[in-house]
UniProtKB/TrEMBL annotation:
Its EC number is 5.1.3.2. Belongs to the NAD(P)-dependent epimerase/dehydratase family. It comes from Sodaliphilus pleomorphus. The gene is galE. This is UDP-glucose 4-epimerase. Residues 5-257 form the NAD-dependent epimerase/dehydratase domain. It catalyses: UDP-alpha-D-glucose = UDP-alpha-D-galactose. It is an enzyme of class 5 (isomerase). One of its GO terms (biological process) is galactose metabolic process.
Length: 344
């Protein structure tokens, strides 16, 4: 084994796919998740894909005693990938206290315990929302950090500041901050994918649930933005591509290849796609029409943003590879598998 890695929020969408890629790369994985937005059956999917069932701890990372016990019972953890956070932009506008309390307490607990248990590397799940509404696209890591447009985005900005300050203070850890753009799709095996509890807050699971008849119609939040078709533009990245970026980041730190103790990378495709273009891409790739209607703008949404991934391509040696058509087919395949299993 290359090392033992703690994946917080590891039964979630990004966490589960990253666990697969870590295990495929030869790492031993310990997952902690409170199952607030996921379910333990995800562990079956991970095992079916990799042949390995990761160690699983059901617990809340916002509780430092729970985390300390995890480290005691699983000695030798030398890296953490942190996905444990509330993550819906729209929900954060209406539940700001929940987002600040949860997201920041989790981060503080992890950073506090790392030196105590000799954990060397920390990969943080950040977001392109830290850039606010950018002046130019595509956006590089050197772009100014603007006032966030939502409490969710604000927690990512504050978290990045906290990590910076901890590193500067002389804490014996290294950190890489990955600023995601918009992860979508599912594992090509159909064994794992995005399955939020309750009504989806993210676009693609709501789209596929509408396509299969669970939801009446998909709401498109605004068609009057200053974009070619009036809908918001995002950089939609395949979930497996995104997961592989975490393995690259972890290897860079644990192999002492990083230039400094703190680095930042944009993780995106480098192409902007509007919400309506994504909808049409799904329909074209699958042959399934999706009932939809235009509704008013959603508070907290950025008009348009997409990545310049040059730094990740050249420094991390990572590149997005899966096409939008294949990504849409994987999302639809996952939704159909859920129906076959009687889950949804």
């Amino acid at each position: 084994m290359k090392g033992k890695i703690l994946v917080t929020g590891g039964t979630g969408f990004i966490g589960s796919h990253t666990t697969v890629e870590l295990q495929n790369a030869g790492y031993e994985v310990v997952i902690i998740d409170n199952l607030s937005n996921s379910n333990r059956e995800v562990l079956d999917g991970i095992e079916h894909i990799t042949g390995i069932r990761p160690v699983f701890v059901e617990g809340d990372c916002a509780n430092i005693d729970t985390l300390r016990q995890l480290f005691k019972e699983n000695p030798g953890i030398n890296g953490i990938i942190d996905f444990a956070a509330s993550k819906a932009v729209g929900e954060s506008v209406h539940k700001p206290i929940l987002y600040y309390r949860n997201n920041l307490n989790i981060l503080l607990n992890l950073l506090d315990l790392m030196p105590e248990f000799g954990v060397k590397g920390f990969v943080f799940s950040s977001s392109c929302t830290v850039y606010g509404e950018p002046d130019v696209n595509p956006i590089t890591e050197d772009a100014p950090i603007k006032k966030a447009t939502s409490p969710y985005g604000e927690t990512k900005q504050v978290s990045e500041d906290i990590i910076h300050d901890v590193i500067v203070s002389g804490s014996p850890i290294k950190a890489i901050i990955l600023r995601y753009f918009n992860p979508i799709g599912a594992h090509p095996s159909g064994e794992i994918g995005e399955l939020p509890n309750g009504v989806p807050q993210n676009l693609v699971p709501y789209l596929t649930q509408t396509a299969i008849g669970i939801r009446k119609e998909l709401s498109i939040f605004g068609d009057d933005y200053p974009t070619p078709d009036g809908s918001c533009i995002r950089d939609f990245i395949n979930i497996v591509d995104l997961a592989k970026a975490h393995v690259k980041a972890l290897e860079r730190m644990l192999d002492d290849k990083s230039d400094s103790n703190l680095e930042y990378f944009n993780i995106g495709t480098g192409e902007g796609l509007s919400v309506l273009q994504l909808l049409h891409a799904f329909e074209s790739a699958t042959g399934v029409k999706v009932p939809h209607r235009i509704v008013g703008r959603r508070e907290g949404d950025i008009v348009k943003i997409w990545a310049d991934p040059t730094k990740a391509n050249t420094v991390l040696g990572w590149k997005a590879e899966v096409s939008i058509a294949d990504t849409m087919r994987s999302a639809w395949n996952w939704q159909k598998k859920l129906r076959e299993r009687g889950i949804m």
